[in-house]
């Protein structure tokens, strides 16, 4: 049976983590691009419905659908960023070890055990929510809610028509939030790194 030395294992592990890091980066970027693309395609559809003087409820359902889809992509983007941060942390540890910058092999192995082999991340859920909102999702949400408010305040004739779309929106946002909160990959280890 062939055993790898610590240095060979570390080189192989580093190459593997580089691939994970690239995948997480591409996933995060792809999700953001999809969100922006879906938003603008929906905006075109909204303007067309407005131009054709379609019933307001159709536009409301379109906006609710967009908000639900963007919400889903937002939480997936947070998750992709969580993995990205975890892989970057492990890559930085290895690089510090190679530069002999106060990281021991034993400490590094413990951190790899703590982060790689368990679904954990280096930051809080609040950090990921804030960073992804700043990355562009805030504008998508605000503009969509602005359009929804515009339709509700100035366009809709029968407020009873709003019950179903608003229940769908609230229910879906609650569902995605619960899934996000319970997701194990977004938890932090009990003992924080020093």
Largest sheet: none
Number of strands: 0
pLDDT < 50 stretches: none
Structural class of the helices, strands and pairings?
mainly alpha
Order of helices and strands: HHHHH
Question: What's the tally of helices?
Answer: 5
Mean pLDDT: 88
Net shape: elongated
What radius of gyration results from the CA coordinates?
A: 22 Å
- Total domain units: 1
Beta-strand percent range? under 5%
How far is it from the N-terminal to the C-terminal residue, by CA? 37 Å
Q: How much helix, percentage-wise, in residues?
A: over 70%
Description:
Helices cover 78% and strands 0% of the residues. With 194 residues, it is mostly helical. The radius of gyration is 22 Å and the shape is elongated. The mean pLDDT is 88. The chain has one domain. The longest helix has 46 residues. It contains five helices and no strands.
What is this entry, summarized?
This protein has about 190 residues and is mainly α. The chain has five helices and no strands.
Fold topology:
Elements: H1 6-51, H2 56-98, H3 105-115, H4 125-155, H5 163-182
Supply the key terms:
single chain; 194 residues; mainly alpha; 78% helix
């Amino acid at each position: 049976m062939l055993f790898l030395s610590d240095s060979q294992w570390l080189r192989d592990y580093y190459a593997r983590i580089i691939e994970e890091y690239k995948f997480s980066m591409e996933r995060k970027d792809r999700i953001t691009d999809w969100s922006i693309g879906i938003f603008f395609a929906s905006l075109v559809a909204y303007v067309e419905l407005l131009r054709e003087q379609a019933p307001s409820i159709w536009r409301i359902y379109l906006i609710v659908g967009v908000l639900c889809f963007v919400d889903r992509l937002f939480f997936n983007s947070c998750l992709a960023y969580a993995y990205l941060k975890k892989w970057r942390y492990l890559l930085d540890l290895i690089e510090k070890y190679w530069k002999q910058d106060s990281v021991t092999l034993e400490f590094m192995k413990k951190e790899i055990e703590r982060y790689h082999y368990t679904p954990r991340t280096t930051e809080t859920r609040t950090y990921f929510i804030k960073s992804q909102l700043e990355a562009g999702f805030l504008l998508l949400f605000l503009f969509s809610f602005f359009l929804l408010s515009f339709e509700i305040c100035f366009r809709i004739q029968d407020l009873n028509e709003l019950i179903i779309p608003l229940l769908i929106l609230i229910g879906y946002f609650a569902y995605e939030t619960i899934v996000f909160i319970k997701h194990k990959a977004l938890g932090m280890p009990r003992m924080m790194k020093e």
